[in-house]
């Protein structure tokens, strides 16, 4: 792994420090955010684009990341053009356990470790504690800078903020009072037109992630 993708970072941010797991109530939101992160990453890398109704390949060349390249191959193999929402649903809920796949690659990269932990004396569950926690600290620091500084954020940090907001990460990072005070700034940053101008596909994908995550919270 050359660097963490948006999908990797959102999983690192969603893992609880005490349990080494994503909250069960946020499992659906996690898969949606990961799927959205994959598509956003491919858009930033110039491999996919969107029009008013569909998402499509513009450059099938592999990016050198097995996880992203597998998604790129899936999109290229689909005979019909599909919408961003369709691909978020496909990757998020019909392509195996997406969260588990990202956790596995983070273990392989040495960012997490895998443990079996017992609870209620007779049951066990898989946990993924962080090794150093550096990646989580760095991602949180970037988000806090975006939220509380007036400087123009990078497109990548803006997209990470959007994913974190839709997946409920900010509610874990900030106090209710901080969320209230920062809500206007968060909305302004997420709506930055600069992101849409730099990568047209990203804005379409971002809107679909927000809509899908909202539906997941209601279900």
What does this structure look like?
A hairpin with a 4-residue loop joins strand 1 and strand 2. The relative contact order is 0.18. The chain has 219 residues and is mainly alpha-helical. The chain contains eleven helices and four strands; from the N terminus they run ααββαααββαααααα. Helix content is 60%, strand content 7%. The chain has one domain (6-218): yeast vps74-n-term truncation variant fold, CATH 1.10.3630. The model has no long low-confidence stretch (mean pLDDT 86). Helix 1 packs antiparallel against helix 2 and helix 2 (27-44) packs antiparallel against helix 7. It has a two-stranded antiparallel sheet. Strands 3-4 form a two-stranded antiparallel sheet.
Features:
single chain, 219 residues, mainly alpha, yeast vps74-n-term truncation variant fold, two-stranded antiparallel sheet, two-stranded antiparallel ribbon, 60% helix, globular
Radius of gyration: 17 Å
Structural class: mainly alpha
As a percent range, the share of helical residues equals 55-70%
Percentage of β-strand residues = 5-15%
What coarse outline follows from CA principal-axis ratios?
Answer: globular
CATH architecture: Orthogonal Bundle
Q: What number of structural domains do the residues give?
A: 1
Summarize the helix and strand pattern as letters.
HHEEHHHEEHHHHHH
CATH homologous superfamily designation: yeast vps74-n-term truncation variant domain like
CATH class: Mainly Alpha
Low-confidence stretches: none
Strand order of the largest sheet: 1-2
Indicate the multimeric state: single chain
Number of distinct beta strands: 4
């Amino acid at each position: 792994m050359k660097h963490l993708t948006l999908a990797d970072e959102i999983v690192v941010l969603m893992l609880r420090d005490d349990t080494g797991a994503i909250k069960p109530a946020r499992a659906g939101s996690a898969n949606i955010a990961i799927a959205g992160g994959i598509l956003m990453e491919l858009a930033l890398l110039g491999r996919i684009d969107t029009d008013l109704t569909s998402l499509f390949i513009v450059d099938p060349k592999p990016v050198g990341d097995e996880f992203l390249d597998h998604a790129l191959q899936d999109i290229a193999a689909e005979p019909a053009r599909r919408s961003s929402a369709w691909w978020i649903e496909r990757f998020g809920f019909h392509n195996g356990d997406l969260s588990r796949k990202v956790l596995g690659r983070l273990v392989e990269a040495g960012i997490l470790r895998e443990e079996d932990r017992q609870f209620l004396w007779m049951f066990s569950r898989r946990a993924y504690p962080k090794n150093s926690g550096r990646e989580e600290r760095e991602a949180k620091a970037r988000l806090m800078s975006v939220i509380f500084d007036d400087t123009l954020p990078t497109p990548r940090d803006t997209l990470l903020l959007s994913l974190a907001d839709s997946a409920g990460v900010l509610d874990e990072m900030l106090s209710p009072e901080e969320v209230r005070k920062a809500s206007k700034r968060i909305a302004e940053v997420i709506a930055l037109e600069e992101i849409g101008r730099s990568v047209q596909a990203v804005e379409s994908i971002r809107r679909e992630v927000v809509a899908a995550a909202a539906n997941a919270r209601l279900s």
